[in-house]
Amino acid sequence: MLDGSAGVRTQLLKLFRALPSEDIQDHVSKALPYLRAAMTHLSRDIRSSSLDFVSYMIKAAGPELISCPGGWHQTLECFTTVLGWRSVDASRWSSTKASFAGDSKSTARIMQVLAEFLQAGLVGDEQSPSNTNPLLAHFPLWEVETLLVPERSNAYAYLNLFGPQIEDETKILDDQQDRQRDFAQNFQGHILAGIDAARKEGGELGRAAGLLVKTLERAQSS
C-alpha cells in the first residue's frame, strides 16, 4: 500500500482480491494502520491508490473494518483530513499536503468511498422488507441468538474488562448506535459543511455530495 511503485500496489490489490474474504477479515486490524498511512501519504499517487484498497476492504470485510480498534473513528479522521473538512466553517478550510486540493475528480472519488464507509458503519446491510411478522416467522424460537455461544473469538473485547484504559479514538465501536453517536459528536458538522460546499461546486463534486446526502438520510431512517 505504501510502496512507491504503482505496479507493486496494483499487484497487491490483485492479490487481496484473489484471497478469500475470510482471510481478509481475519487480518483487517493489522492492515488498517498501513491503510490509513496510505490515505494521508505525501505522495498523491499513493493517496489515490489507497482509495481502491479502502473500497475493497469495505466490500470484503466491512463489519470487521468499522468495528476493530480505531477502525471507525480514526478512519473517519483520515477521510476528513484528506478532504480538508476539519472545520464546520468552510472559510477556515486549508489544503494540506495530504489533500487533493484543486483536483475535483480525486476529491469526488474520496467522497464516493466515504459514502461507502458511512453506509457500512451507519446503515449496514439493507434487507428487503418482508410482510411476515418476525415473531411469527421464528416461532417458537424467539431471540435464540442471544443465548448462543458467540461465533467470533473475544466477542466481549469492546467491554475492555481487563485491559488498560484506551483513548476514545481507538475504542472498539462494535454497535451501530455507538458509531452513530460518535459520528454525530465528532464528524457530522464537518461533513455536512463539506457537502454543502461541494454541492455549490456542481459537476462531479455535486454528484458525489448527493450520494453522501442519500447515505446520511438512510442512516437517519435506519
Automatic annotation (TrEMBL):
<feature type="domain" description="Pre-rRNA-processing protein Ipi1 N-terminal">
    <location>
        <begin position="22"/>
        <end position="118"/>
    </location>
</feature>
<dbReference type="Pfam" id="PF12333">
    <property type="entry name" value="Ipi1_N"/>
</dbReference>
<dbReference type="InterPro" id="IPR024679">
    <property type="entry name" value="Ipi1_N"/>
</dbReference>
<protein>
    <recommendedName>
        <fullName>Pre-rRNA-processing protein Ipi1 N-terminal domain-containing protein</fullName>
    </recommendedName>
</protein>
